[in-house]
Amino acid sequence: MLPLYLLNAVKGETVVVELKNAGIINGTLENCDSYMNVTLTSAYASLSMDEPFHKIDRIYIRGTTIKFFKMGNEFIEKFKEQQQREKDNHSNYRNNNRQYNNHRQNKFNNQRRGNGNYNQNNNGNNRWGNNSREGIDTKN
């Protein structure tokens, strides 16, 4: 899955695609899918070694015909930063979810033990809620 994440990170950037039939296409990456089919815009293509380059406004390249992609090192750094941000966001989500679940479990355990909202006031009377009405005798 790593190559697909990298390709998604460099959408809108210029890449060079070398094909299995020795063709070379240079253009701006517009889109890619899970099969690594890509769409390039403002492309220059040479479909064989001895053919000159031709300008193509938009070209769709099937993933099975691609040998490899070439791109600058700055895109690799951009990709690493994006991966780190996603990892941090996922980690924060997991921590927040874990805290929420711990809070719910503690609340459930307190209710099972009788430590929930059921309190005993200073007079020894049991009642629901907090101790804001202390001193009121609720025994019959």
What does this structure look like?
There is one protein chain. This protein has a domain at 2-71: SH3 type barrels, CATH 2.30.30. It has two helices and seven strands, in the order αβββββαββ. The strands form two sheets. It has a five-stranded antiparallel sheet. The mean pLDDT is 76. It is of the alpha+beta class and 140 residues long. The chain has helices at residues 2-9, 73-113; strands at 14-19, 24-32, 38-46, 54-61, 66-70, 118-120, 126-128. One of its GO terms (biological process) is RNA processing.
Named at the architecture level, the CATH assignment of the domain at 2-71 is Roll
Radius of gyration: 31 Å
Number of DSSP helical runs:
2
Topology as a string of helices (H) and strands (E) = HEEEEEHEE
The biggest beta sheet reads: 5 strands, antiparallel
CATH topology of the domain at 2-71: SH3 type barrels
Query: How much strand?
Result: 25-35%
Computed structural class:
alpha+beta
Instruction: Give the helix level as a range of percent.
Output: 25-40%
Short description:
Residues 2-75 form the Sm domain. The protein has 140 residues and is of the alpha+beta class.
